[in-house]
Amino acid sequence: MKTKLLARILAILGFGSGLTACMYAPAPMYAPLGKWFSARGYITDEAGYRIKGIKVSIGNGDRGLSDFTDAEGRYEISDRVDGDIALIEFEDIDGADNGGDFASTAISVDVDSENVPKVVMTLKESSDE
Fold this sequence. Notes:
Helix content is 15%, strand content 35%. It has 129 residues and is α+β, with helices and mostly antiparallel strands. The chain has a domain at 35-122: Immunoglobulin-like. A four-stranded antiparallel beta sheet has the order 3-2-5-6, with no helix packed on it. A hairpin with a 7-residue loop joins strand 2 and strand 3 (66-68). The longest helix is centred in the first third of the chain and has 12 residues, at 2-13. It is elongated and about 90 Å long.
């Protein structure tokens, strides 16, 4: 009798029901879509010199992440992308400060590769015409 009374009091106060709720919690309604994609490489100018400070981003990425090339022109970037193709975008955001004013460009890369692709990109000088 005392046990039932104690159980009812605890139930009224909300104790015990949380455990039941946790045991029967619904599955998450939304799961992450797309495929995980990573790429790494380096950026050069037309003479073959590596370029620092180029913004690299995955254009169709979930989180809109970007990275910048280091002093040796290297980058590494990862994001979740929709579809089978990742669009990697390269943009010179500091103008001539990194040795030239380079034109923005993009490249499409197959997402289904099991290996991290090494993408080496040569940027051309931007024309002001």
